[in-house]
Amino acid sequence: MKKQQLITELQSVGLKLVDHAQGASGRKGGAGPSDHKAVIVEGTVVMVPVYNSPAAESPYTVNTVVNANTSAEAMTLERQGERISSINFPSQPKFYNLTTADGIPYWKIALLHSQDVLATTVLQTCMRYGDTATSCQFCAIGQSLEAGRTIARKTPAQLAEVVEAAVRLDGVKHMVMTTGTPHTSDRGAAYLTECARVIKEKINIPIQAQCEPPDDFIWFERMKAAGIDSLGMHLEAADPQVRAAIMPGKATVPLEYYFEAFAAAVKVFGWGQVNTYLLAGLGDSAETLVEMCDRLIQIGVYPFVVPFVPITGTPLSQHPVPNSDWMFNLYQQISNLLKQAGMSSADIKAGCAKCGACSALSTFET
Ligand code: SF4
Fold this sequence. Notes:
7-stranded mixed sheet, 12 helices, binds iron/sulfur cluster
């Protein structure tokens, strides 16, 4: 099986892990894609669902094989008992062993994603969460907070301390700062700006910030001046009807407002340095998604298309995962559009689209 096909299928159906302690800790709950773990498949690091219900039924498992001559152990990825490829797990980062001066374990402030990305949710609360009339049905931002796996608000000083250690001890290369949406009209841009400024005073690491479009686009200039290198504003779904059904609160921000914000942000951050998540499998047709990606690419926005992952405990926990053949065709069409435009994830300075581990899209770009 080709690597692209294997990654696409693994990200749809997940991996059935008998021993969840293998590799670095995965993500359970939290903002954005979750219930998954970083694995290395044929040299590529990808996030694969391991904690949700499709993963429990997945035909993919990991087996440890002992070499009879050398006694060396090697892990293999198997599909219904048949060897498919080698597999590995990135090891637990060293900075997870540290605690801030005020007694918070570093792993409650930021997590290692993929192999060299530090990710944090600066505000772990969201004005849209907790009320079915407004919440995004795929989101689990409150789960990790309730379970005591994170803290509600990471201070700029805590973040700077953790980033410095993650770079020094674990070779982290870039950083993602996302946020739940606060009630303020800047939609979190002000707090992201403050956090970036304090982090950049301590250490020079490329940073991507992620938030909803703010009321005043002057925030993009302030974010950039504070040291934010790239920006994500996430559509999640393309069709207005799908958006309204899946995320009734966020869908009150019309697509046209997102496009005004994208245009303003591209002027500040540069062509290809603004990106948006599109969760494939929430109800958008492939045609709608491809049209949306085309429109985004034309204005300089990288469309980060990821397969929808149903997260345990959310209203969409039983929603079907996207079919892997459908995802494969989608990736092919979108990567063709990217190639025609000369837009590449490799050129992005920081963030999810640069990391790419939650999607197989970047493997189709090359
Ligand atoms: S793509 Fe984003 S959410 Fe996914 S592993 Fe990379 S940094 Fe984390």
